[in-house]
Amino acid sequence: MISLNKYLLPIITLSATFSTSAMAGVSAEASLKNFQYTLYDGNTTDSYLPLAPNFSKAFGFWAIRFDSNTLDITQQNSGVVVGDLSMSDTYELDGTFASWSFDGQGNLRAEAHTNGSGSAYIGIKYSLPVLVMPNTGISFLTSGGANSEYINYQLNSNAEGYAHISSNDCSFGICGIDTGYFSSGFERTLSSYYHNHSNAPVEVYFSGQLYVNVVAVPEPNTWITLLAGLGILSAVARRKSLRY
């Protein structure tokens, strides 16, 4: 079995800063990077050679969404061709206005209004269509991670996220492998393998996806109110204890 290992170093990064009364200054970042693929020749006696992916058809996507209650307020996706796979973004939300920009091909810029309440999500996706020759296997590997922290407090937020990969579309019966949840600051490896046992070329799709849910925290005045309330309760408890 012949193994042809290829390494690419595209980095897809999405960062966001949330500064609303509901979010109380939360920043988050998610990234997919270090994409690799390996081709395996399952039959060295036939006339077919393992075919490398057509990277000119590869696309990367990012999305930012702000939910108010259960209503999806804003969301944006955009594709980018190979050679322009590095994506980054800063998302600022002041409670009434949200805007973001895409620094990839086309220099996309979009804006939307929100009411400043709810929960915030950021997400990224890397998708790659591959033509797999007969008796050929292909494996994919990429790493993903996320970080989230509160800007106004010396606190760290566990940026719970969900990673998902699929080796081809659902019509082939393989709709994806769930890799589960992770915490802020920890990377998770996404991998998938597909082998074409047929006598005809098959186009498959590798997709690495990462979504991060940014948890809201109280505003500073809310913290002060809570601490003041605890102080009052403590004073009342102490006064009662002195009576007896």
TrEMBL record:
Leader sequence segment: 1-24
Domain Ice-binding protein C-terminal: 216-240
InterPro entries hit by this protein: Ice-binding_C
Keyword Signal listed: yes
Keywords on record: Signal
Record's keyword annotation contains Signal: yes
Protein name: PEP-CTERM sorting domain-containing protein
Species in which this protein is naturally found: Pseudoduganella dura
